[in-house]
Amino acid sequence: MNLSKFLTLTLFFISLSALADWQQPELSHNLTPVKNIIPASDFELQNMDEEKKKLSDYRGQVVLLNFWATWCPPCIREMPSMERLHQEINAEGFKVIAVNQMEEIDDVFAFTGQLEIDPTFEILFDKTSQVSQDYAVRGLPTTYLIDKQGNIRYRAVGGRVFNHPEVIKIIKNLIEE
Predict the structure, then answer these.
(1) CA-CA-CA-CA torsion for 22, 25, 29, 33, nearest 10 degrees?
(2) What is the predicted pLDDT for the residue at 1?
């Protein structure tokens, strides 16, 4: 390949990368309070170790329940902030649960190995999307904040910065209730 073609291709890929970065909006930190508090539907799904976990296993804890997929750009962008949140509020009264949509464990395992921060929170697998249907998930990512009594208190559709001080304040207030 001659130098001119190489430079043209290099500039093309740099421009494409800059365009991709430019088109990505900032992630919000806003969570929408749920006006009519409703109980979170219980479910049972497998985790990365193929153990069955129920949402009700975490009753008595505040739960950040996130629906996501590896092919979802805002899901990928918010994942490190979920891990930072999980590490920052590493208390018995709080749990992060990420429910993957219709993907294989091996694919998700490979994906998580490529993240800047390796997730240590619970990842569950909704292989049929039944749980996301039960929660009326219309787009990914969708996140619910569930109180210690098992009620949905906040909702967010779209990517978020979960370790933002305002989100942490909301979670700590729910833990103290």
Answers:
(1) 180
(2) 52
Q: Alpha helix (H) ranges present in the chain? A: 3-23, 73-88, 105-112, 130-134, 165-176
Q: List, for residues 76-101, the tens digit of each pLDDT value.
A: 999 999 999 999 997 789 999 999 99
* Nearest one of 148, 144, 98 to 124, comparing CA atoms: 98
Domains, the chain, ordered by start: 27-176 (3.40.30.10)
Classify burial at 104, counting beta carbons within 10 Å of its beta carbon; exposed 0-12, middle 13-18, buried 19 or more.
Answer: exposed
pTM summary value? 0.85
What b-and-e string marks burial along 148-169, b requiring 16 or more CB atoms within 10 Å of the CB?
Answer: bebebbbbbebbbbbbbeebee
Q: Burial letters for 12-36: b for 16+ Cβ neighbours within 10 Å, e otherwise?
A: eeeeeeeeeeeeeeeeebebeeeee
Residue 157 CB contacts under 8 Å (≥ 6 apart), including other chains: 138, 139, 141, 142, 143
Judged against a pLDDT cut of 90, whether residue 133 lies above it is answered with: yes
DSSP 1: -
* DSSP one-letter code for 28: B
What's the token pair of residue 139? 């787009």
